[in-house]
From TrEMBL:
InterPro entries assigned to the protein according to its UniProt record, in alphabetical order: AMP-bd_C_sf, FliF_N_dom, T3SS_SctJ, YscJ/FliF
Source organism phylogeny: Bacteria, Pseudomonadati, Pseudomonadota, Gammaproteobacteria, Pseudomonadales
Transmembrane segment boundaries: 211-232
Name of the protein this chain belongs to: Lipoprotein
Keywords, comma-separated and alphabetical: Cell outer membrane, Lipoprotein, Membrane, Palmitate, Signal, Transmembrane, Transmembrane helix
Gene Ontology CC annotation, any one: cell outer membrane
Bilayer disposition of the protein: Lipid-anchor
Similarity field: Belongs to the YscJ lipoprotein family.
């Protein structure tokens, strides 16, 4: 029992992210472990998972995941944009909401491309100048993609523009611009650990609290064990 308690405390980790999908959680877990970070996952009641790391590894873990675009952004769906609230919108509002939902879906699709960290699609719709249906300017769209520095996406620009052109009504291929920005893949340099002395033992500042907890558990278990032995001998006498 003593050994089990000590091992439980020694392996204690804290929550890094929660409510992550199984697929994304496994990808994040694999990435953290490839960076040499001790990480685990636990399921929750909603079928999602949470990631656990050592408290001393939080900064390094967040930095490693951020460089690879994790956790992924959640996008709105048609169901989110058009809730069943019974309210009636104008045709212009309906079209704007529909195009926004489509832009969100396209952003989600673009984010699935290998190496894409962040994807945004911004649509500008024309406004009617008068009741005759004249437009101030044609519709346009801008696509922003932040990608991993070691991935080249320039060859995919025509396909990206075609995807947006086919996905949103009233857009012209030539009115779609695509901006590709490589990520600055700068690794965080870990700071040298600060050591403290605890009962003539050199420990890091982050490990000091855990060591105190281990000693506390050890002393408590010894006291309980001695009390149990004393009571047992007393009943036998």
């Amino acid at each position: 029992m003593l050994l089990a308690a000590l091992l439980a405390l020694a392996g204690c980790k804290i929550e890094l992210y929660a409510g992550v999908s199984q697929k994304e959680g496994n990808e994040m877990l694999a990435l953290l472990r490839s960076e040499g970070i001790s990480a685990d996952k636990q399921p929750d009641k909603e079928g999602k998972i949470k990631l656990l790391v050592e408290e001393s590894d939080i900064a390094q873990a967040v930095d490693a995941l951020k460089r690879k675009g994790y956790p992924r952004e959640s996008f709105s769906t048609l169901k989110d944009v058009f809730p069943k609230d019974g309210l009636i919108s104008s045709p212009v509002e309906e079209r704007a909401r529909l195009n926004y939902a489509k832009a969100q879906e396209i952003s989600r699709t673009l984010s699935e491309i290998d190496g894409v960290l962040v994807a945004r699609v911004h649509v500008v719709l024309p406004e009617e100048r008068d009741g005759l249906g004249k437009k101030s300017s044609p519709a346009s769209a801008s696509v922003f993609i932040k990608h991993a520095a070691d991935i080249q996406l320039d060859a995919y620009i025509p396909q990206i523009k075609q995807l947006v052109n086919n996905g949103i009504e009233g857009l012209n291929y030539d009115r779609i611009s695509v901006v590709l920005v490589p990520s600055a893949d700068v690794r965080q340099v870990p700071l040298a650990p600060h050591y403290e002395t605890f009962f003539s033992i050199q420990v890091t500042e982050d490990s000091r609290g855990r060591l105190i907890g281990l000693f506390g558990v050890l002393i408590t278990l010894l006291l309980v064990s001695n009390a149990a032995q004393f009571m047992w001998h007393r009943t036998k006498a």
